[in-house]
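FAQ: What does a multi-protein file look like?

Like this. Sequence, then tokens, then the next protein.
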Amino acid sequence: MSENTAENRLAELGDEAHEQLNRILGTALGVAREQLEANGVFLPFGIALEAATDGAEGELRLLAVQPPEDENDPEADIDAESMMIDLVTLLSQQREAFAAVALVSDVTLVEEGRDAVHANAEHSLGGAVAVVQPYTAPADDAGAWTFDEPTAEPGELLVWR
């Protein structure tokens, strides 16, 4: 997925596109947080903002793909990287219908020894931004999840390359 041929033009996007990216990232982080609090884990997923039609604001859609199964080892860990590739393919095939998309995954911050939500959002006009939100699971069933403030970093154009 590192064969990024399009230029990230985030700084050139207007206010409306930035608002759309903020909306999709906020939704993406919220869905991931809900899944973590309810299930303790989440599988990679996508959030897509439909393109506006007739002046109406586009709706948000949640997109997911089926985890690949290993016929030789049904108990094998889920291949999240393969799921992300499938999500990129799915969103790329449907990109004309969307103004913006976000790809969301659970990552490990190796240097910090912590888990985090990673969301890479991109706009159809060519800008991309990512956010990373570290979290800590509760020590026991009665405890609460803690989520750090998300931090932004350069995003990668995967759907609109």
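And here is the next protein:
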Amino acid sequence: MRFSLVDRIIDVKPGKEITAVKALSLCEEYLADHFPNFPVLPGVLMLEALTQSAAWLVRITEDFAHSIVVLKEAKRVRFGQFVEPGQVLQVRVEILRDDGRLTEVQAEGMLNGKTTVSARLVMERYNLAERDPTCANLDDSVKRDMRKLLSLLLAGGKMPNSEPPKNTDPFAGSRSVAQSVMSKSS
């Protein structure tokens, strides 16, 4: 099973930072077991929300140069309050260091102005073709799919390198942003 723990990207400054949100719904199937009478977002999935946001920042920063962006290391992970259904976790990730293969970031999840989760993450990226040249077409397919997914995740506003969106509603869509991203994937 694959969990998408970024519902919207509300702001991004390539090479610097990203702000994204995860709105927790009671419909999320893992909540049935975590916990049956007290449903909350599992800590490991809070960390995954930070990781997925960091991966989007890396992809956007390098204009999708690599098909694979994964968590290599999580340091100084701290948890605060619970995230319950109906609440929105706001994630902010800032790049600290980037050497072309590894990117170290400081990531934080906030709920009502209070830190819910924070960590220092090291993200690694590569193309499958670097390990197996026959995978070059798969790399291209993954990059194309990631661009399409980004077009769905971007909130109202403009593409990176522009002014921050004026609309602060994390679920507002933007046809022009989606069209801009889609044109790059063609």
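Q: Is there any per-entry metadata?
A: Some entries carry free-text notes. For the entry above: The radius of gyration is 16 Å.
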